[in-house]
Amino acid sequence: MRHVKFGKCVKCGREYPAVPNLTNCECGGMIDIVYDYDSIQSRFTKETLSARTDFSMWRYRELLPVEADTEAPPLRVGWSPLYEAPRLAAELGLGRLWVKDDGLNPTASLKDRASAMAVAKAREAGARVIACSSTGNAASSLAGNAAAAGLETYIFVPARAPKGKVAQLMAFGATVISVQGSYEDTFELSRQAIDHWGWYNRNAAINPYLSEGKKTVALELMEQLGWQVPDYIAISVGDGCTIAGLWKGLKDLHAIGFIDRLPRLISAQAGGCCPINRAIAEDRPWEPMAENTLADSIAVGVPRNADKALLAIRESNGLVVNLSDEEIMAAQKLLGRSCGVFGEPAGVTGTAGVAKLCRQGALGSGDTVASVVTGNGLKDVANAIAACGEPISIPSDMDRLLAAFAERGLRPA
Question: In the chain, N or C terminus with fewer CB closer than 10 Å?
């Protein structure tokens, strides 16, 4: 990988060769992948990119830490749609608003970007088995991408993982271990098992290549916007890997001259589990929290990518916003009726944060914002129904229909 220099610890600065099975620094710090931007600029331009017909995350190979001859995994990950949302922008009082629906990836979440990268690196390492712990989406994305590539998977999930996500895991042929405990308990058991059997590690807290996969959401977003940078980009935050990857992608584009400025990030967390946002708001080191939120994908009380996430928020002069479960559920309805985008609770938390910041006056008509929806609503239909309500249920009787309409105050045109 001539365009990759090395891996560098974000805590102590120690450098490591960028081998496929690279993990954390000896000091315990996370590793960041460092690129040779001069080399990349010499052979990667906007013109070469626009001529490509591969509309997936792999269209950005020059900015990805894979060998030139590494085959892309079979599932088509990336190039999710970006919608401008003028009605929602007007309702919130924003200048312009775009919504990127990453719930339309193959297994219905942004996590496919990280899992596709993990599969590619596992192949480079000659691994046949790959494993991870997850609150749900990383698990299903790994199982699907690995199944398509012919790799065996062992997946550890907390017992509270929604049935829709567990059903995906079983359908993809994964060996699923449902752990009776918190996400921290789940992560610890997966770590011990991976060490014991020597499986390839897909855990974002350990594997530095996963945020490199996630950063492709930023590369796509900027290309879809014609390289015009919005003032803010909002995203939901759990363990911190996604917002760190988003920021890395933006910095990469700025370093090679594809964009002329960097946006501010909006870190949206559930109020019942917001250790990263709390650390920013109180300007102190993060501390563990309980996992009290229905947004299971971001219910991470001990964020393993906190260092990178905190750095991204601070470097971007970002905003942090915490949402109640009621505010998150309201955002499911808001996105659905205004944009036709169906997101799971964690998936819409970024947009819920934008709405709240607008209500608070922190964002307004002079601002342009992009919000990333990180997971599809079909992942968690029980909470979607709780948020949006039950349908009208009546016999096939016109009089009953009229009565039901009257009861709900409906006056069809």
Answer: C
